[in-house]
Amino acid sequence: MDDPRADLIQLFLFRFDNPRTRRAYFLDLAGFFGCDTVSLEVARRITFVDINRHLDELSRNEYRPATIRRRLAAIRGFFDWLDALGVLDSHPAKRQLIRRLPRIRSSDSAILVLSIEQAAALVNAAADNETSGVRDSTLVLVLLHLVLRRSEAAAMDVAHLRPIGSYTVLDLPDTKGGRDQYVKVPEHVEWTVREHLAHYSITSGPVWRSLSNRSFGKRLTPHSIYRIVRTAAQKAGLPDIGAHTLRHTGCTLAIEAGASLQQVQAHARHKKLETTMVYVHQRDRLRDSAADYIHIGSRKPD
């Protein structure tokens, strides 16, 4: 910190190993400061008023509450780091100085999940393409059964599929929940993935590849996976969904079929059981709701 012109954002990001975390914090801090690099002189000029104005602007521009909270976490973490270095005269992001944000209660938020019939329709719709149908339907099947995040699916390599005894697992070298994890691949899903690899003559490297003329053979990006799922959903006449809906769906269908909370927690790689419990809370809330006991001026459909 001897050089007052040093780029503090990059120095701060050295604290994080995960490249996705570094990128998210970089974008959040660049969005706050309005530039990609920040010197100590610029950082020292920030006051709690600047931070509160920024949060108010995000709210007025209808940013999601979760996004606003993440942005504040990045800003607060950055100034906590500077405060720990002893280079600030005052800490502008102290909790006592920053406006209170609405609490986000995941148990009160509806999670979009598909029924088993809708999930099957999605797989069939994804297969309805002469060029990419094998890839797309296999991808949807993997997302549903392995409850992968789209970044995890995009990172899949052929070498990540390996046996453990009589079972097959998919290695997940770097995920949101930590490094060097794995998830079981059911036998019929492994067979389908192997068919996909043979169909496109893939023997090594990325499992999911672009089939467009512009980027043929290159690894699919997480955004490309999102678009594949969204397009298949439109074909199937389903609501607008993304890849994460399939993660929610896989967890919910497993619970509905009798999997224990601990099994789903391990399979989805949730750090906390409370995260898994959200699916049970929503199922129970809808299965036996007070609304079902109210009958005023209504009749059952013929």
How would you explain this protein's 3D organization?
The protein has 302 residues and is mainly α. It folds into 2 domains: 8-102, DNA polymerase, domain 1, CATH 1.10.150; 116-287, Intergrase catalytic core (hpI Integrase, Chain A, Orthogonal Bundle). It has 13 helices and 3 strands; from the N terminus they run H-H-H-H-H-H-H-H-E-E-E-H-H-H-H-H. It has helices at residues 8-13, 19-33, 40-44, 48-60, 65-85, 116-126, 133-146, 150-154, 187-199, 222-235, 243-256, 261-268, 273-287, and strands spanning 161-164, 167-175, 178-185. The chain has a 3-stranded antiparallel beta sheet. Strand 2 (167-175) and strand 3 form a beta hairpin. Helix 4 packs antiparallel against helix 5 (65-85), helix 6 (116-126) crosses helix 10 (222-235) and helix 11 (243-256) crosses helix 13 (273-287). The model has no long low-confidence stretch (mean pLDDT 88).
Which features characterize this protein?
mainly alpha, DNA polymerase, domain 1, 302 residues, hpI Integrase, Chain A
In short:
Helix 2 packs across helix 5, helix 6 (116-126) crosses helix 10 (222-235) and helix 7 runs antiparallel to helix 9.
Rg from C-alpha positions?
23 Å
Q: What fraction of residues sit in β-strands? A: 5-15%
Strand arrangement, major sheet: 1-2-3
Please outline the major beta sheet.
3 strands, antiparallel
